[in-house]
Each structure stands twice: as structure tokens, then as C-alpha cells.
């Protein structure tokens, strides 16, 4: 990788993260954290984001293993389809952005991706992660995030091959991507960014069981309350990586907490 490309990639990732943060902050401002000091009686499910991204490379065998080691209730994994129809665990549409591979995932065959790495760990297909989950000594839920539509049925078939359909929830930013899962009777979740009332409305309109939003100070309790009153499960994801923000999400009463550091979340629950 050339120094110039490395700088461009870092800048792109910085701007992507900044945009998500600005969206939430511009809507609600930098309000104080909740910090009531009280953990709800109903324990939230702790889910490792992309395996356990803060503890091991994301969407890899190492990430799933680390999530299992710390004792998560479930793992969230990003799924994309390659040019030859393989189901790849990867977040970005372009391999260059976060791996040693090159090209658009959807335009690249698995044989050309095989051997590429992310932070020293090889990229893997969904089937390899399912092996780990199926072989675990306890039941682990799987939240499969589909980055696009068009391959939902293939995901369902692959998960079924490992006997894990009863542990599967299909989630996506796209309402269309989750429709085939709903038709098959699989739980679904609609993912959004800022915790707005519109996200709850969109999730309900899409027939989803869960609405997932980023953490935003002071706005989260209302999102959780509105979502639960709508009869949906309230999930919080990604922007909860510090002990304080994870604690805040738990205190707000979220049903599902998806974090890069599930070890911190589990420790908070254990200490209460």
C-alpha cells in the first residue's frame, strides 16, 4: 500500500465516522450522560459487533472466537455476496478500504479474495463463522447484517445447513433485504443511525421486530421508550465503546446492546 493511498483511506474512514457522529450531535447536542447508576432489572442481550471488533479483527474467525471467549449472548456479522455467489464476511463494498484485497466485493470471485487479510487475519465466508457458532458449547445468537438485498435466501439456506435458523435474526439498513427473512418466519431488525422517532416508525412499517440505532446522549431513553411502546425490541449499536457510553445504553433500558467491547458490557452487568 502506498503512503498516499493509506492517507486517503484513513481520511475516508475518519470522515465516515465523523459524519455519523455529527448527525447525532447536531440533532440533540452534547447533553450530559444519563448515569443514573441503576441497571434495569431486565438484562439486555450483549452482542459483539462484527464478532468483537475492539478485541480482534472484525468479521474473522479470531473475532468470533474472542466473542465466544468473553461470553457474549450473540454476535453480529456483516455479509456481502461475491461475484461468484459466495457469502463473504466483510463490511465495506470495496476490499481495498479495510483489507489487503483489491476490488469491489460484488465484482470479485472468492478465489481472488481468498488469502486476503484484515489486520493479519484472513477474510472468511459465512460458513466458516457458522462452524464456530455451531461447535460452541453454548447457544449463541447470530445477527446477520445484510449489506445489500438479493442474497437473503442464500443466507437463510446456509444458516439452515448448520442447524442455526432458530438462533438467526436478519438485520439490514434496507427494508427490502429483510423481507425474504420475514416471509420465512425469521426475526428481523431494521438498522438506522440516529435514534429518531422516524426510525421506530420505519421499523414498524417494515414489519421488523427490532429497531437498531446509534447511541446519542440524552436521546436514547426516548428512542428506547418509543420503540418498546410500539411493540418492538430496542437495540443500540456501535457508538458505545467506552465504559461510560456502554453503561449509559444499559441504563437507558435497551433490549440489545451491540458493542465492539462486549467484555466491558458484561463486566458492568456482572458488577450490578
Structural features, described:
- The longest helix is centred in the N-terminal third of the chain and has 26 residues, at 3-28.
- The model is unreliable at 1-32 (pLDDT under 50).
- The chain is 39% helix and 18% strand.
- The strands form two sheets. The chain has an eight-stranded parallel β-barrel, surrounded by six helices. The chain has a two-stranded antiparallel ribbon with strand order 4-5.
- The radius of gyration is 18 Å and the shape is globular.
- The protein has a single domain, classed as Phosphatidylinositol (PI) phosphodiesterase (TIM Barrel, Alpha-Beta Barrel).
- The protein is α/β, with parallel strands linked by helices and 272 residues long.
Q: How many individual helices?
A: 10
Largest sheet data: 8 strands, parallel, barrel
Helical content band: 25-40%
Distance between the termini: 47 Å
How does the helix and strand content classify structurally? alpha/beta
- CATH class categorisation: Alpha Beta
Q: Low-confidence spans: pLDDT under 50, at least 5 residues?
A: 1-32
Q: How confident overall, as mean pLDDT?
A: 89
Number of strands: 11
Taking all Cα atoms into account, the compactness measure Rg is: 18 Å
Q: Which range does the strand content fall in?
A: 15-25%
Indicate the overall shape. Answer: globular
CATH-level-4 superfamily name = Phosphatidylinositol (PI) phosphodiesterase
Tally the structural domains. Answer: 1
How do the strands of the widest beta sheet line up side by side? 1-2-6-7-8-9-10-11
Q: How does CATH name the architecture?
A: Alpha-Beta Barrel
CATH topology: TIM Barrel
Amino acid at each position: 500500500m502506498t503512503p498516499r493511498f493509506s492517507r486517503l483511506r484513513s481520511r475516508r474512514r475518519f470522515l465516515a465516522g465523523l459524519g455519523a457522529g455529527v448527525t447525532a450531535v447536531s440533532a440533540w447536542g452534547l447533553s450530559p450522560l444519563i448515569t443514573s447508576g441503576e441497571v434495569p432489572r431486565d438484562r439486555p442481550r450483549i452482542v459483539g459487533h462484527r464478532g468483537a471488533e475492539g478485541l480482534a479483527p472484525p468479521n474473522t474467525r479470531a473475532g468470533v472466537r474472542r466473542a465466544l471467549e468473553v461470553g457474549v449472548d450473540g454476535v453480529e456479522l456483516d455479509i456481502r455476496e461475491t461475484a461468484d455467489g459466495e457469502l463473504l464476511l466483510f463490511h465495506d463494498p470495496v476490499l481495498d478500504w479495510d483489507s489487503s484485497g483489491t476490488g469491489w466485493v460484488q465484482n470479485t470471485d472468492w478465489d481472488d479474495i481468498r488469502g486476503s487479510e484484515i489486520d493479519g487475519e484472513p477474510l472468511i465466508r459465512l460458513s466458516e463463522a457458522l462452524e464456530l457458532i455451531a461447535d460452541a458449547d453454548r447457544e449463541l445468537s447470530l445477527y446477520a447484517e445484510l449489506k445489500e438485498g438479493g442474497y437473503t435466501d442464500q443466507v437463510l439456506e446456509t444458516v439452515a445447513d448448520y442447524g442455526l435458523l432458530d438462533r438467526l435474526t436478519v438485520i439490514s439498513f434496507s427494508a427490502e433485504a429483510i423481507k425474504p427473512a420475514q416471509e420465512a418466519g425469521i426475526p428481523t431488525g431494521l438498522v438506522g443511525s440516529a435514534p429518531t422517532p422516524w426510525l421506530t416508525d420505519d421499523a414498524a412499517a417494515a414489519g421488523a421486530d427490532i429497531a437498531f440505532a446509534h447511541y446519542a446522549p440524552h436521546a436514547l431513553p426516548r428512542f428506547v421508550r418509543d420503540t418498546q411502546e410500539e411493540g418492538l425490541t430496542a437495540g443500540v449499536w456501535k457508538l458505545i465503546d467506552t465504559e461510560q457510553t456502554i453503561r449509559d445504553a444499559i441504563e437507558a433500558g435497551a433490549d440489545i446492546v451491540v458493542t465492539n467491547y462486549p467484555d466491558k458490557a458484561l463486566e458492568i452487568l456482572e458488577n450490578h
